[in-house]
């Protein structure tokens, strides 16, 4: 606002900051600037998402037309699709790598990596991350993890193919499946690098949030995006090391003949020497990360949608404190629910009962969040920007996918639903589609901040409606396959009589998936075109309150020329009665607005309440006559 | 209506756009059909449909079509702007209406799914505990469907009603503790009910007190890539010990015949179960983790190498009954593998039949024991010298076994 208009950026850039010369490499490649690192994360994430989506189309083709041959598949995949038909082993590799990339590289690094790096310093008023070097290292380890994961497509035995959960002994014994050879080794190496990367990132995010907030920015004035990213980082820091521990033990089992996860195994008539381990141990270690991981995926998306919904409804987010407490509740509870992935794995049934209770409790904070979103929309003045469309889509997916979680979290019902398509439908809606929509909402919302240009909104509308409808068409019918007892990760539905009736549904789902994939072309074109040719962004395109919109459009090192703005109020003063504009940025002191604009609520303040009542009398609710 | 009015009229403009687009596409279609007609005698279209380039061209045509629409919208908006009129298309209204439409069509779609795909699901449970699971499922389905419909009506309804209008200001409403308390406590209460029911059902499935007069029939199932091996307990009603170190080409399951309970154990090509009798499944695995899944009975449990897992259940319907109920003479119970286990995962099945007790007894009498002469030699069991006699002996013990088994069943 007025604070920044007075400054000459250029002058400052050289004078105050003792700017060092930037070369191409230091600016675009080994950059330590958080905004550049955010872009690197985002573009890497998008590329990985496109790859993983391509893999899913390949296996959807196999599921839809199990007995047809597609010569182009052989052209691309060679021996893995001899005669134009994907082989069973390779099918499993496809689902495994699709899952791994989507969960870890796209929805963990691509989502929280991008938005933590972009928003934490900008929304909190910091010049950069606490440790820019660590930040750069974090990106490059992530990049290497991606490269190594993709390189497994170029080894003789193919990529890891034991499912993204890589349960031993299948993933350990090379004889059990070809993917458990070199491909699995690469998977483990890639995962160790990835965890190192996300730990560096996480520590950086937490220390920045705790130590580098600008003047006046206390914890209860932070936007919900920051709260979500903060709690996500804590979750990651506490749970990812457990995965590394598990992975290291698996490396030992695979390469040095130990028996942490192996015991009593006979391949055909070949008796393996391993004794005393337990495959269940891996499942405990894996899911101790794995369950928090799904919240690591969804929480940043929820934070982004809170912000986007509030800005575009022109209303404060309903129940700010409840939103924060429910995020904290989800964070804490997510550590004690991992066993619900293991109800029928042979874990002691006594534990099953306990984990069922903790699992269903976690539905309460999730429900609170959903109702708060709805209450925020109520009597709002909703602008359907592309970001808002995606945020509304997220709420819809979060409801649809969340409700099926009540089935799966119930141990008794899980008996018949475990590892069926019902599970596939559930998590693709609640953490797949919802988190992707959160990410896209974030991209559409903060693209002007990232690249200084606007995305084309009309392509955004097209992108949203095609993706939203196609995603439901893909995942809704899959619930019914699961309810009919069709297990997941089946190469073909041709061997069982009762599955044959679902073949037509599979064809339908595959076409919907292809349309969804093609719809992304609208986004990709829009994204890369607008980076260079988009309309130049105004200072505050969405008329939002948060601090990042006070920084100059042109990126500068250190974010703000001169002093960092001071924060006076919470970030959700939208449509506050008595103020001329329908938003009051965080940097506006209370003294500059009407007396009704006291800290963020009216309750208990007689004077403020009276002003509110007067305002309500003077402004009766106008029905929208469109 | 003057000509000028006609030209600037919104609807006419929209119609003009549509007409242009239509004309364009029909022109394209004509070209395509001309090209197709010219090529038809020479080229087999089947190959064309398979070629990637064909689909890429279709996609590019679609992109072009979208680009034309985009440009027409732009031209329309620019012309409105040049005339100094408000922005051409009110996108907020478009999206609000689309959300409302999506709500209606979506709810119909859900109804369609529930009725059409919902009728293609598994038949009612064929086991005692399965009925309880089905009841719980139905209750959960009712609750979640209500919430699903209700919240979606609110979500898309609010999106429609509270769409942007320049005349209106949103209502500043940051929180209301009472409402928040209500929608924390109500879901918590509903979930408490579900948790309690689930917990009790779960306990009743996995913590059964054994009725001494109606001891469950033990059946051991061993999984390996990619098949199931089934072992019946024989006359003593007890499945004997196993030790994976004893696995040989003749003793594929590694049965320890030093254990006297193992010697009468019988092998079976299919799983045949007597109706109405409790059955205790003992699940083990030789190589990797598999999952024993019999959806019709609502049974699933992983088979894990190095440990034994147990599942007790009572089948309540015979295969014949199910064939009648489902009106499908080919109905079969299935046993599948539900845990990813390798390239043959999708085809790891075993026939399961539930029959009356009498049928079960006759079937059981035909099954052979695992212990054969080769294994007797291997385990130094004293039967090798008098082979023919032993054979008659063993058949005698077999029939004796059937008798005792029958007695056990009759008890």
TrEMBL record, chain B:
Cofactor note: Binds a copper A center.
GO biological process, one term: ATP synthesis coupled electron transport
TM helices/strands, residue ranges: 53-73, 94-112, 139-162, 182-202
Ranges for domain Cytochrome oxidase subunit II transmembrane region profile: 114-209
Leading EC class: translocase
Gene Ontology cellular component list: plasma membrane
Documented EC number(s): 7.1.1.9
Record domain Cytochrome oxidase subunit II copper A binding: where: 214-366
Signal peptide feature range: 1-29
Cofactor names: Cu cation
InterPro entries in the record: CcO_II, CcO_II-like_C, Cupredoxin, Cyt_c_oxidase_su2_TM_dom, Cyt_c_oxidase_su2_TM_sf
Stretches the record annotates as Disordered: 388-411
Top-rank taxon: Bacteria
Reaction it catalyzes: 4 Fe(II)-[cytochrome c] + O2 + 8 H(+)(in) = 4 Fe(III)-[cytochrome c] + 2 H2O + 4 H(+)(out)
Stretches with biased composition (Low complexity): 388-404
Keywords assigned: Copper, Electron transport, Membrane, Metal-binding, Respiratory chain, Signal, Translocase, Transmembrane, Transmembrane helix, Transport
UniProt membrane topology term: Multi-pass membrane protein
Molecular function GO terms recorded: copper ion binding; cytochrome-c oxidase activity
Localization: Cell membrane; Membrane
Family: Belongs to the cytochrome c oxidase subunit 2 family.
Job description of the protein: Subunits I and II form the functional core of the enzyme complex. Electrons originating in cytochrome c are transferred via heme a and Cu(A) to the binuclear center formed by heme a3 and Cu(B).
Protein name (Swiss-Prot/TrEMBL): Cytochrome c oxidase subunit 2
Taxonomic source organism: Pedobacter petrophilus
